Amino acid sequence: MIKFEKISLVGTIIKYFPILLLLASVLNEFDFNYMGFKYFSFNFPFILIFYWSLKKSGSLGYGLIFIAGLFNDVVVGLPMGVSSLIYLLICGFAAYLRNITLRPNLIKDWFFFLFTISLLNSLNYILLTLFFSFKISYEESLFNLFFTFVFYIIFAYIFDIYQKIIMGKLND
Amino acid sequence: MDSSRDDYVIAIRSAFLQKSNKQRFSLIGLIIFSIIFIILGRVNFPPIEYIKISIKEIVFRSSFIVSAPENFIKEKNKNIRSHFSLYKEHKNTKAKLEELKSKILVNEFTINENVRLKKIINDYLVESDKIVAKVLIDKNSPFLRSLVVNKGSKDSVKLGMAVLDKAYLVGKVVEVNYVTSRVLLLSDLNSKIPVTIEPAGIQSILSGTGKEKGVIQYLKENYNIEDQSTVYTSGAGGLFKAGIPIGKINLSKLINKKKVLDFFSDFSQLRFVQIASYEQENVLKADREAKIRAKKDEKIKAKEEAEEEARIKVEEEALIKVEEEARIKVEEEARIKVEEEVIFKKLKEKYKWKCKKTTFNRLYIEGTPEFKTCIMNKGPKKQKEKKN
Question: How far is B202 from chain A (nearest CA, A)?
Fold first, then answer.
């Protein structure tokens, strides 16, 4: 009985790992910005949400993504609801890609991700500068976009391995 | 062509409108909810403000806990680095200390003179009580440079208060919650502070760049600023007092043709900060006196209340004592009466014939007080003597 409970707990953690990682990444300084590399920053929640919404849509609940967005707004100091909107739109784009794709291809996903984050970063920029009169460095945003794009492929490989090895074992 | 367009429309509709069995909320519903949240937040709708405050209080604490392991690693990394550079730093510090010792003596005279002169023109501002706060969140975001500290309105933190790292200005309070506050750092793009560049005494505005540096804005090119000039707050606008050191001008770099400033404080290493406001000495003095007076009044009131309570208690105790004595007296009388009654009953059997009125004597009718006295006296002899 004890063994069964243990397996069940580990299984739950593995199952909810993506959402736990998302919540931890919005609450924590998970993007290595603190390392102080010039222009280096990337948006880990974008990668995480896009990948898991695309590959395993049930692993991230929309409600929890909405809450994670609110948390991110509070931690970063953005107006409430902005990150939630962007995160949910990423989910929408990923769901759209999933629906129109017959044969999944990582490179195609990768470039669709670039299109998505370019569009949504622009929306974010417009919302913050026009609607809330925030001043944001366009240069920084571009570099952030670029590194987020570059890191997608790396994290996609890592998440693929995680899915195959750990989640696969759980399904067995 | 039409069928391919239909496919895209179906895919979009399916992505945004359809709710899969694993999702509790539909995507479009939550997107609309987010937009409503943003709009209501923009117009400062009160219920949204309350939700915001509650979320902030929870998230700031949670974030501090979640960041603990990473902060620990960062702290250890910093300690190791500082150990390696210890000897070099020690030598530099020693040389600097000697230099500073001599400077202090010269400065002391200038400071006193400056204070005297400022008092004459009623521009001498003094610091209110400083609040020391711990940095809860230091999210070094590429977009916004801000900190969250663990002091809020509960600890008398107010909007616009200056935030200092030792003696150096690092930012100002832009958001106050009940137990936390957000500090906008000077390096943020949205930060604008009026400054004086010394020794030339040039007035300007310091703006953040979103990175570790600041830039001097709204300054004509013909002003001659020396390299390593020190930048202080100018006190214009009345937000900060004049003369809080901020950083040094670095002419070796230019950002968008603007002069760059290196801050004295390293914003990425802030763990504790001081929050302070500045007021005129007489205003602050009056404020402090009023506070002391209020405290004294409170003490006197408390003392009077305590005395009143004690008096009431004593009176109540006295009343209880009187009542107790009366009760004891009544009980004693009842007891005596009962005892008398018992004795009377005993004696009555024995002396009834001596006291009872009959046809042949003039004694007392049974049941009268005189009869009782007669019985208690064991015969009428005493009563008769008294009568005579």
Answer: 26
Question: What pTM was computed for the model?
Answer: 0.62
State residue B3 phi and psi, 5-degree precision.
-65, -35
CATH number at residue B230: 2.40.10.340
B137 lies in the same domain as B226? yes
Task: Please count the structural domains in chain B.
Answer: 2
Residues B133 and B246 in one domain: yes
Split at pLDDT 50, 70, 90, the class of B143 is low
Separation of alpha carbons A45 and A50, rounded Å: 8
Give one word for A124, left, alpha or beta, with left for phi > 0 and alpha for psi -120 to 50.
alpha
* Mutate which: A15, A66, A101, vs B, most B CBs within 10 A: A66
ipTM over 0.95: no
Mean pLDDT computed over B361-383: 82
Distance from CA of A92 to the nearest CA of B (A): 6
- The percentage of chain A sitting over the pLDDT mark of 70, rounded to a whole number, equals 87
Whether residues B231 and B182 share a domain: the answer is: yes
Looking at the structure, do residues B250 and B351 belong to the same domain, yes or no? Answer: no
Measure B87 CA to nearest chain A CA, in Å: 25
Q: Which residue has the higher pLDDT, B145 or A170?
A: B145
Please report the pLDDT score of residue B28 as a whole number: 84
Q: Which of B7, B8, B210 sits opposite A137 (nearest CB)?
A: B210
A85 and B16 within 8 Å at the Cβ level: the answer is no
Kindly list the residues from chain B whose CB atom is less than 8 angstroms away from the CB atom of residue A96.
11-12, 15-16
Which residues, other chains included, contact B61 with Cβ-Cβ below 8 Å and sequence gap of 6+? B136
Determine what percent of chain B is predicted with pLDDT higher than 70. Answer: 91
On chain B, the residues whose CB falls within 8 A of the CB of A148 are none
Mutate to test the interface with A, among B8, B57, B66 (most CBs of A within 10 A): B66
Q: Which residue of A has its CA nearest to B19?
A: A62
CA B170 → CA A77, A132, B143, B185, B273, distances in Å?
17, 24, 18, 6, 9
As a whole number of angstroms, the distance between CA B150 and CA A29 comes to 18
A5-11: list long-range contacts, CB under 8 Å, 24+ apart: A11/A170
Minimal Cβ distance to A95: which of B27, B33, B189: B27
B79 CA to chain A: closest CA distance, Å?
15
- CATH, residue A96: 1.10.1760
Of A29, A92, A137, the CB nearest to B139: A29
Asked whether residue B105 is domain-assigned, the answer is no
CA distance B202 to B220: 11
* pLDDT in the model for residue A58: 73
